[in-house]
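Much of what follows relies on a compact textual record of a protein's fold. Each token is a code from a learned vocabulary of local backbone shapes. The record below shows the convention in full.
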Amino acid sequence: MKTVIARSVFFPLLILALACKREDVAPVQVPGSRPAANSRPASEPGQPDQSLTVMDTSEKAVLTVTTSGSSVTIEYTDTSGTHQMTGSSRDSGKRKYESASGAVAEVKPGDDGFKVRTPDGKLLWKVKFKEEKIKVSDNEENNNPFVLSLKHAPRVEVLDSSEHSLGELRVDGSTTSLRDASGGERFRVKSAKTSAASAIMLVEQIPLAQRAIIAGELYARGK
């Protein structure tokens, strides 16, 4: 009789102890299975790091730059519609830009700037950082460049190759705008960080797609 009573008490206590012990052990994640509903991954790759948007006076976006890690995604709108391209870094250090239709351009970094080239390596634009200026030229010698002057940053003055004003990037409180040489507002800018990158939009002598790449590269480099 005593043996029966002892067993009837022992086994429920054993089951209760095992149940409590199981609650203290973290569940093992089987490879390939889904994580628990309340768990979060250690990192979330692909999330945007920073973004820049340039809008016309009707607040329609004409250029959006998004950086995520070493990738730069660019979306711009011209008279034919909206276009998107993504620049992905290669082991060589170059960034290759591609759209849905294929290769668009490549960017080769340098010690004091970068070069925008065609997919087969032909120079389009050489961008050079010098003192309080960003120079953009269509030749290796950097002759007759367009200039983004940072002398009075955050205001950025934009000059053509003859050093005539094309306008400026102006910051008034919480509003950032791009204005032409006569002071008329051309664009408004929203950015996650202070940047001179959007000022290149005032250089209309450069095709819009190429301006977009230059803006993206300047923004990705913190200029």
